[in-house]
Write a structure and sequence with these properties.
Blueprint (H helix, E strand, L loop, with lengths): L26 H6 L11 E8 L3 H12 L4 E4 L15 E2 L7 H33 L7 E8 L7 H12 L5 E5 L7 E12 L2 H14 L3 E3 L4 E5 L2 E4 L2 E10 L15 E14 L7 E4 L14 E6 L4 E12 L13 H12 L6 E12 L5 E4 L6 E5 L5 H17 L6 H4 L9 H14 L19 E7 L2 E7 L5 E5 L10 E3 L4 E3 L6 E3 L4 E3 L17
Helix pairs in contact: 2-5, 2-7, 3-4, 3-7
The chain binds flavin-adenine dinucleotide (FAD) and FE2/S2 (inorganic) cluster (FES).
Length: about 525
């Protein structure tokens, strides 16, 4: 495999963090490179403005362009440089929140539509790959769900019954094919899929442009309202606006009390191809975890070179900005994953990539895809959970229907304005966790003196009621900012692995240069004179 100009194999040393939302490069970004277009430099008019060029925005724009609409897509990074560039791209209707849970929150009809829509999403991807002749390693394959050591067989029994009820042809097995040291029960999901997400997005983007629509990168949207938005300071007028920014940047509070940011980690090893059948594997989750969304391990194989696959293993999740609660800071999560994978895949060789990313966990298991609450022609896609490949693709089916005024049976299930009373206990726990983060406003900082910060690291320093986010560069230069998140004022935390300041409240993230990388915050951390920090 050739390394591109932004190559950062084995990571932590990507000098251009603007390529993606962190210091580490994923295999996907490393193998394709930034998918870049001109920044927007003029006022424009379009039928639909799509903000965000991840799988949600690009799939929606593709479908709309196919219907003959003139679409303008803008992204403040590059195509796929958000979480789509950091995914592991299992493309499944085997939802990680489980159909027996979805049924509890959304009833039988909701669970049926969940199965139908995610199945349709896999079929959509396959059809587009064939129609556009996209070389993106798309393949249908089996998925295997097995018990986490802290869980009981009932989870598998309940999920087997629920999947069969909702038309997913699962099978029960007594062992876990392809995994050492794990025994059954296990569920086999035939006909799942995987692909290279950035190769897929690149071709979809080319198709969007070929159909007469427009794509701009390094183009930041703000002032989003009915009928228009500002992009790089220019006005874009559009009757319909789709905000596909992973977490909605047009919403101050409402949606951010209904979903919660978690960080998840990936280690990729080389593994000999001999006797390996590409499959997907994941477990039922750590039932002893303190998080509402239980971390689970997820694994796939990816074409890499003639001799080896990449074994891509994910997990070790925690709420964003709160890794220390488990006394395991961000940078200590990879060895846990590596150890887990080496026990189950004893023939893995060296670790060639490591990266992490952020997942928005909805309070009631399903994504939010539809009209932004209170708006008529502004739409959002968010709350993707660990199934953003299919959730993002569902946006590409559902939103064009809403925009065209066609009825769609899935509209109610994904309605961002829905209230799910069954989710109230989790809603209260998650929001009280968010509220507790404001306690950091009066807590001591991580260190009290600049000299305690090692070169190449960051920290939060307190000075009375003031808090400073400080980064010391490799040459010892100090870069200081206010540590109060520009969304709603929580104190940011240093993430030593991705070299970013992460907000524990709603998941905004800022680079070591203080620049906003993830919403909902829209503006950078204000810079502070270094002399003020220790006063
Ligand atoms: C490690 C990891 C593993 C995962 N594994 C899987 C998996 O196996 N299967 C699965 O289905 N899902 C998985 N997911 C989830 C999935 O990757 C995401 O849900 C999905 O990629 C989100 O796509 P998106 O288009 O909604 O957001 P993104 O890809 O984040 O796109 C949003 C875009 O909006 C842009 N943007 C933000 N603000 C602005 C602004 N103001 N103006 C302009 N542009 C803006 C960003 O630059 C970004 O490019 C995983 C996620 C992670 C992190
Ligand atoms: S993300 Fe909401 S306060 Fe920081």
């Amino acid at each position: 495999m050739e390394q591109n100009q932004f190559s950062a194999k084995s990571n932590g040393d990507n000098k251009d963090a603007s390529v993606t939302s962190g210091s580490n490069l994923s295999y996907w970004l490393d193998s394709v490179g930034p998918i870049q277009f001109e920044p927007l430099r003029k006022d424009l008019t379009a039928d639909v403005l799509v903000i965000g060029a991840g799988i949600s925005g690009i799939t929606t724009a593709y479908s709309l362009a196919k219907e003959g609409r003139h679409v303008v897509v803008v992204d403040d990074g590059f195509v796929g440089s958000g979480e789509t560039g950091r995914t592991t791209a299992h493309v499944v209707n085997a939802l990680d929140d489980f159909y027996h849970e979805i049924e509890k929150y959304h009833g039988e009809e909701g669970a049926r539509y969940a199965a139908e829509s995610h199945t349709a999403a896999i079929d959509f991807v396959e059809r587009v790959v064939n129609e556009e002749n996209i070389d993106c390693d798309f393949v249908r394959l089996n998925g295997y769900l097995f018990l986490h050591q802290t869980d009981k067989p009932k989870t598998i029994e309940d999920e087997y019954a629920a999947t069969r009820k909702y038309g997913i042809p699962t099978e029960l097995l007594n062992d876990v094919p392809g995994l050492a040291g794990e025994s059954g029960p296990c569920m086999k999901y035939p006909n799942q899929a995987q692909f290279h997400p950035l190769k897929y997005l690149k071709c979809l983007t080319d198709a969007i442009i070929r159909m007469g629509s427009e794509v701009y990168t390094q183009s930041k949207a703000s002032d989003i309202k009915e009928g228009s938005a500002k992009v790089n300071g220019h006005e874009v007028i559009a009757k319909h606006i789709v905000v596909a920014t992973n977490t909605p940047v047009n919403d101050l509070v409402t949606m951010h009390t209904k979903q919660f940011p978690y960080r998840t980690y990936v280690v990729a090893f080389t593994i000999p191809k001999a006797n390996r059948e590409p499959s997907l594997w994941w477990d039922t989750g750590d039932h002893e975890s303190e998080w509402i969304t239980m971390p689970y391990n997820y694994v796939r194989l990816q074409e890499y070179n003639d001799e080896d696959y990449l074994l891509i293993c994910g997990g070790a999740d925690h709420k964003t900005g709160q890794a220390d609660k488990e006394s395991t800071p961000e940078e200590d999560r990879y060895p846990i994953l590596e150890d887990w994978a080496r026990k189950r895949f004893p023939d893995v060789k060296e670790v060639v990539y490591r990266w992490s990313g952020q997942v928005m966990e909805p309070i009631d298991t399903m994504g939010y895809i539809g009209r932004n609450p209170g708006d008529k022609n502004v739409y959002i896609v968010t709350g993707d959970s660990g199934n953003g490949m299919t959730h993002g693709t569902i946006a590409g089916i559902l939103l064009p229907d809403l925009i065209a005024g066609r009825s769609n049976p899935w509209e109610k299930l994904y309605d961002p304005a829905r209230i799910t009373f069954r989710a109230t206990p989790d809603y209260l726990i998650e929001n009280s966790n968010t509220f507790k983060q404001y306690g950091d406003l009066i807590a001591a900082g991580d260190v009290s003196k600049l000299e305690e910060i090692p070169a190449g690291e960051g920290s939060v320093i307190s000075s009375g009621l003031k808090k400073y986010a400080v980064y010391k560069d490799e040459a010892g230069g100090i870069h200081a900012y206010s540590a109060f998140c520009t969304h709603l004022g929580c104190v940011v935390h240093w993430n030593g692995e991705e070299k970013s300041f992460d907000c524990p409240c709603h998941g905004s993230r800022f680079s070591r240069e203080g620049k906003v990388m993830n919403g909902p915050a829209l503006s950078n951390l204000p810079e502070v004179e270094v002399g003020k920090v220790e006063k």
